[in-house]
Amino acid sequence: MFRLKGHYFAIATIATSLVLKDLFDVWDFVGAARGLEISPIEYNPPDFRRLIFKEDIYYYYIIFAFFLGGILYMNWFRKSRLGYQLRSVKDSEDVARSLGINVHWAKIKTYAIATAFVSMVGSFHACYIKNIEPEDTMSLDLSILIALMAMLGGAGSLWGPIIGAGVLIPLKSYLKEWLGAQAGLVGIDLILYAVIIMLIAAVEPRGIWGLVEKVRRRKRN
């Protein structure tokens, strides 16, 4: 997979997730398709081990801490040696190799860092809903939604994926409630996602943040 380039690499990661989902659906050790459930034994809140609190506001503070930690780390990561290497790899892998960059290991290290963040937030998610199953964490529509957040907001920028999430998450909830539940158009949200991807590719490949940067450059000039 790490030998692939550009969009092929992104497609391969999604395909890998679907293969793993099929394996987890039949793996009894992790509960198969039913997943795993956190023991409903009664504990006196607060229980920091199982993240059980009296009020939901504490969950907000926890996820907000994850958010701040991620922002600070990404801001540092962009200016790190690996961050500059990835920008070179993104522009041209052949040129990056000619500069002495080990493209293969750069991808592996980046993938490991991203997986570490996902595993921490995923552990919080499991404790919050008290259950975790393959369909909830590894489905195709979820993978597409995550990729689309970065594409819509602006992949490669700090604030782009945050903007994309701020637009798509409310839109996803609205589409499921209105088009899916009331109008009976189940699956129409995936079609709209495809339309958004085509529009972004045609109008502004750098997404919303790319439009913001264009407006800022015009004002400076």
Description:
The protein has 221 residues and is mostly helical. The chain has two domains: 138 residues, no CATH class; 82 residues, no CATH class. The chain is built from ten helices and two strands. A two-stranded antiparallel sheet has the order 1-2. Helix 2 runs antiparallel to helix 5, helix 7 packs parallel to helix 9 and helix 7 runs parallel beside helix 10. The protein is globular and about 60 Å long. The mean pLDDT is 81.
Question: Helical region count?
Answer: 10
Please tell me how large the radius of gyration is: 20 Å
Chain-averaged pLDDT: 81
Briefly note the structural class of the backbone. mainly alpha
- Span between N and C termini? 43 Å
The largest β sheet comes out as: 2 strands, antiparallel
Amount of helix:
over 70%
Which regions contain 5 or more consecutive residues with pLDDT less than 50? none
Question: What is the domain tally?
Answer: 2
Beta percentage is: under 5%
**Tertiary shape:** globular
Topology order in helix (H) and strand (E) letters: HEHHHHEHHHHH
Helices and strands, with pairings:
Elements lengths: L5 H20 L10 E2 L19 H22 L2 H11 L1 H6 L4 H27 L1 E2 L1 H4 L2 H14 L6 H23 L5 H16 L3 H14 L1
Antiparallel strand pairs: 1-2
Helix pairs in contact: 2-5, 3-5, 7-8, 7-9, 7-10
Task: Summarize it.
It is built from ten helices and two strands, in the order αβααααβααααα. Helix content is 71%, strand content 2%.
Primary descriptors:
single chain; 221 residues; mainly alpha; two-stranded antiparallel ribbon; 10 helices; 71% helix
